[in-house]
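Researcher: Quick one. two chains, 229 residues in total.
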Amino acid sequence: NAGVMQNPRHLVRRRGQEARLRCSPMKGHSHVYWYRQLPEEGLKFMVYLQKENIIDESGMPKERFSAEFPKEGPSILRIQQVVRGDSAAYFCASSTGQGSFNEQFFGPGTRLTVL
Amino acid sequence: GNSVTQMEGPVTLSEEAFLTINCTYTATGYPSLFWYVQYPGEGLQLLLKATKADDKGSNKGFEATYRKETTSFHLEKGSVQVSDSAVYFCALSRNTGTASKLTFGTGTRLQVTL
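Model:
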């Protein structure tokens, strides 16, 4: 059973470009979470999605950031008009969503560098 | 709101030394508590968890006890190995009956030397 897949692993963008980060959850998992890790900091929650629904986006910046988890295909975190401050590691996690203690399994992350 | 505070690193220990990484939390209600480990270049792996007061989570020689009275969840290991070198994150999630986000501490880097 493959784990959580994220791609690309490394992404370099120039200021003003768009970044698209993909996350394929573990088989059987219908819940996806995105977290951002700035250099030398802990992970900060961004958004929580189920298939075709955003459940909690309280950690998402109000502008330029969006996320989706379509019925078919991976979850996408999209950052428009990137700025240097967007440089970070972006981690996706998935879970079954069953029960209040269900474990979140993390992917290896996408490291975004904005030049 | 919810928050997690953990001791700053880096923590440098010799192999076979005793490890303690302090973690305290602030939360409404009774959260679940977790320790995650991140090896270089990798994602986070769940190390152990505790879901109610006085529970002790343990795994791979690591353990932590959920202390409601001191709002703490300190990570301990009796004898560390070089392979334990990593960044350790304390985290909590609310017990709402449904899945919910994790709130993380800033992480503590552990370096174990021979």
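The radius of gyration of chain B is 14 Å.
Researcher: Thanks, that's what I needed.
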